[in-house]
Design a protein that fits this description.
By secondary structure, the protein is of the alpha+beta class. The protein is 20% helix and 35% strand. Strands 1, 2, 3, 4, 5 and 8 form a 6-stranded mixed β-sheet that branches. A hairpin with a 7-residue loop joins strand 6 and strand 7.
Length: 157
């Protein structure tokens, strides 16, 4: 059975256009990756949670700030590894300098017997829509198109 997750694509509008907040995953596997590594803050549901509740909880866990705005569904998509992501758009603001992500523990280096802690998200950054495409995980890029459609008219795909 494929894994499920839910997340929020936070956006803000300026005279220069739309910006989206993306999160860079923490830990040693992602440390040196930039292009194609950024994502929406997201994660798996807890028992009995709706997708909206999961998205709000994961946003707060990964960024350290509550997601208190109205959520607009952006639909589901399937990532390359088979995980389904239910995404929501939310207009708002977040100061990346205030990032306070939860930590996770893992054996590193592999098979060394030593464990280290890493943040779930090691940095967050605002990107203009066009600049976000090469930074974002390829399988999540359709969310940028869906947001653009939502904000500039037309039905969501």
């Amino acid at each position: 059975m494929p894994q499920e997750s839910a997340g929020i694509l936070l956006y803000r509008t300026h005279a220069e256009g739309v910006e989206v907040l993306l999160a860079h995953p923490g830990g040693p596997f992602w440390h040196a990756r930039d292009d194609g590594a950024w994502s929406i803050p997201k994660g798996g549901p807890m028992e009995g949670e709706t997708a909206e509740q999961t998205a709000r909880r994961e946003f707060e866990e990964e960024l350290g700030a509550p997601a208190t705005g109205a959520l607009t569904p952006l639909g589901r998509l399937r990532q390359r590894g088979g995980k389904w992501v239910e995404a929501f758009a939310m207009e708002g603001d977040f100061d990346p300098d205030r990032l306070n992500s939860l930590m996770f523990r893992m054996e590193w280096p592999p098979r060394s017997g030593r464990y280290s802690e890493f943040p779930e998200v090691d940095r967050a950054r605002w990107f203009r829509l066009d600049d976000a495409y090469p930074k974002m995980l390829e399988s999540q890029r359709p969310l940028l198109d869906r947001l653009d459609t939502l904000l500039h008219g037309g039905p969501l795909l």
